Amino acid sequence: MTTTTAPIAGTRTRVSRRLSAIAESATLAVDAKAKALKAAGRDIIGFGAGEPDFPTPEHIVAAAEKACRDPRMHHYTPAGGLPELREAVAAKTLRDSGYQVSAGQVLITNGGKQAVYNGFAALCDPGDEVLVPAPYWTTYPEAIALAGGVPVPVLTGPEQGYRVTVEQLEAARTERTKILLFVSPSNPTGAVHSPEEVAEIGAWAERHGLWVVTDEIYEHLVYGDATFSSMPVRVPALADRTLVLNGVAKTYAMTGWRVGWLIGPTDVVRAATNLQSHATSNVANVSQVAALAAVSGDLSAVQEMKVAFDRRRIAMHSALSAIEGVECPRPDGAFYCYPSVQALLGRSLRGRTPTTSAELAELVLEEAGVAVVPGEAFGTPGFFRLSYALGDADLAEGVGRLAALLGEAS
Asked: Which among 118, 312, 344, 378 is most buried, taking Cβ atoms within 10 Å?
């Protein structure tokens, strides 16, 4: 007879190693700290959170109010999303990017973050490598690792406008590489790849049999001569190995409504839907109806926000570029500036000598009352991310405080 021995007390971790390895979202942490200091009476200007400062358009809110009184919306609906919303997302995708998909290729998720996680969970087996151009949004590597994949950062810098090249990607590719993560416009840098660059990178991925996960959440927020370009449109042969992630948060000022989506081949979407059926079931029905009103309507409210963001983009870039020791490429998309502060590290400031951008960001918050996110959160220490999705007066005051403080460095 075989006997078993009970585990020795104390050898098991209280929290799983998988979850213990996850870092808190740095952007949300900075925003929470800024709000806590405000609540305590400090005069804080926050450049941390990546969300529009505009209210959700009224017709979207009205649709949600009506849905609250609809008994159908008081019960479970399909885990993959309301059929009419999936149809509308497919139609919106064709309208906005020229990519033709069916409703069966759409999964409605609880915000863009769940789309990110579901996508990588559907594609990654343990040890699969994912090329992640850096700077990257803080959630990407965490979602990849949770799914069993291995994030492989591919570093880009201000000298190249933070746009990754085929040569860099090829140098990072190994026999274990399965996926390329591609984001344009980019969070945190605001970089936008040209249509030619998108086509070149997509053709490279197709040639090597890679999957592409492309996040298009900022598709409508491009400025000047920059142009958004969807990779499966530029490289149709890649469509069967592409997942497109998107949502209503940025375009329609709906960060709190928590509606995103994943578009891809039907077998992958089916697998991701099965995962969601166990993790969360359906997205809140009222939010789905609000999203339906958003994607089915015109883009007039988006254009109004875009005009304001463009004005703030120019103002912030100009002000940051005037600070000695700060290098700030002009962002062409999203609503972020990503300046290098490396030249300021190791210099004396208010009796302290910060040697990392995290230390400098902490000093800036304490001494100037300005909240920024340090580059450590995005895989590139020595940088700050500042969102210009805030009021013009607060933006001017905040950057002015930042300039005055950093100007004291010696």
From this structure: 118
